[in-house]
Amino acid sequence: MCGIAALQITNPALRSQLGSLLNTMLCEVIERGPDSAGIAVYDNPALTDPDTTVLSLLGGEQALSPAGLASALERELPEAEVTVEVLGDTTFVSGQASSTELTAALETVLPGRDIIGQGRHVAVMKGVGNPRDVAEHHGLTSMTGTRGVAHTRMATESAVTAAGSHPFSVADDLCLVHNGSFSNHATIRRDLERQGVVFDSDNDSEVAARYLATRLTAGEELESALEHLGTVFDGFYTLVVTTRDGMAVVRDPISCKPAVVAVTDDWVAMASEFRALADLPGIDHAHVFEPEPGRVYTWRA
Question: Of the listed 2, 27, 175, 256, which one is catalytic?
Answer without folding.
Answer: 2
